[in-house]
Amino acid sequence: MANTLKSQGSALGAIRPAQSGPGAMSIAVGALRLLFIVVIIVFTLFPVLWIISAAINPAGSMSSQTFIPQGVDSVDDMLVNVRALLEDPQVPFWTWVLNSLVVSSITTLLTLAISALSAYSFSRFRFTGRRQLLVTILLIQVFPNLLAMVALYLLLLQIGPYIPFLGLNQHGGLILLYLGGAMGVNTWLMKGFFDTIPRDIDESAMVDGATHWQTFVQLIFPLVRPVMAVVAILAFVGTLNEFVLARIILQDREKWTLMVGLFNFVEAEFSNDWGKFAAGALMAATPVVILYISLQKYIVGGLTQGAVKG
Q1: Domain boundary at 61, 87, 113, which?
Q2: Does residue 195 surpass a pLDDT of 70?
Q3: Can you give the CATH number for the domain in which 205 is found?
Q4: SS3 sequence, the chain?
Q5: Which of 134, 210, 213, 293 has its CA 20 to 30 A from that of 57?
Q6: Is residue 16 part of a domain?
Q7: 251 and 159 in one domain?
């Protein structure tokens, strides 16, 4: 009997190390996941932290830039670049900010109107060439605007004498170019969301005598606010951060957008001012952050609900 108990005890002792194996494995996997997350967070936040460091660095030079700025003893030292940016009479910073906000806001509103009406038409109506038009819109978006820069420049050059506010060196002409790409991905994104809305709503409204416009404005529009918020964010941020077309079309300093104006601080070969550039970049990010915070409850729903037709 004693031998039997001893043999069972030795067997249990042999089993215990084997049972501790999966626990050690799970700890190791968890540690690797945590390490991976930390690396990704550091990799993501490092550029932001470096811009903040450059903005509060009084030296304003990339060659002397350190992650922890040197010579910063007070709040006044941290705001040297901000004051230089705002108080320099040669730098119309607030004019650039206003130009960017005006161009981005108008482009966003017109993009929402064009995309929503187009998506509603493609989702609810059946007409000849509907599928071909959808495919064509998607294929056109494959080619970036950079390939058409010369054509777009010549287009505005030809329009300018007849419609001056849509010509070169005009914000209207720049908005016109931005709207040229508004019907691509945005129309497809909105159409997928419109397809999830039951057609019974449209049919009930038609029975009650409502027109297509009344149905869209009074019934459908309130239901598509999440995807409208997503398209608004994409259009606003994309327009606010756009540089190439604005640099080509806008020639007068007073008409530059913020991105073009900030590039002016770092384009010279021997007179780069990274401190002002970084300070302006941080201030330019403020409207985007406010927009994301105010519309964050719509973002996830707008991106996911239209992905699968319900």
Answers
A1: 87
A2: yes
A3: 1.10.3720.10
A4: CHHHHHHHHHHHHHHHHHHHHHHHHHHHHHHHHHHHHHHHHHHHHHHHHHHHHHHCCCCCCCCCCCCCCCCCCCHHHHCHHHHHHHHCCCCCHHHHHHHHHHHHHHHHHHHHHHHHHHHHHHHHCCCCCHHHHHHHHHHHCCCCHHHHHHHHHHHHHHHCCCCHHHCCCCHHHHHHHHHHCCCCHHHHHHHHHHCCCCHHHHHHHHHCCCCHHHHHHHHHHHHHHHHHHHHHHHHHHHHHHCCHHHHHHCCCHHHCCHHHHHHCCCCCCCCCCHHHHHHHHHHHHHHHHHHHHHHHHHHHHHHHHCCCCC
A5: 293
A6: no
A7: yes
**How many Cα atoms are found within 13 Å in the side-chain-facing hemisphere of 137?**
21
- pTM equals 0.79
Lowest mean pLDDT among 20-24, 116-120, 246-250: 20-24
Residues 49 and 151 in one domain: no
The confidence score (pLDDT) of residue 310 equals 43
For residues 135 and 273, state if they share a domain.
Answer: yes
Other CB atoms within a 10 A radius of the CB of residue 262 amount to 24
Same domain flag for 148 and 220:
yes
163 in the same domain as 52 = no
275 vs 31, residue with greater confidence: 31
The pLDDT tens digits of the residues spanning 16-35 come to 444 445 677 888 888 899 99
pLDDT digits (tens, 9 = 90+) for 122-177: 988 888 888 888 888 888 877 777 788 888 899 999 998 999 999 999 999 999 98
Residues 81 and 117 placed together within one structural domain of the fold: no
Note whether 43 and 74 are same-domain residues: yes
If asked whether residues 100 and 175 sit together in one domain, one would say yes
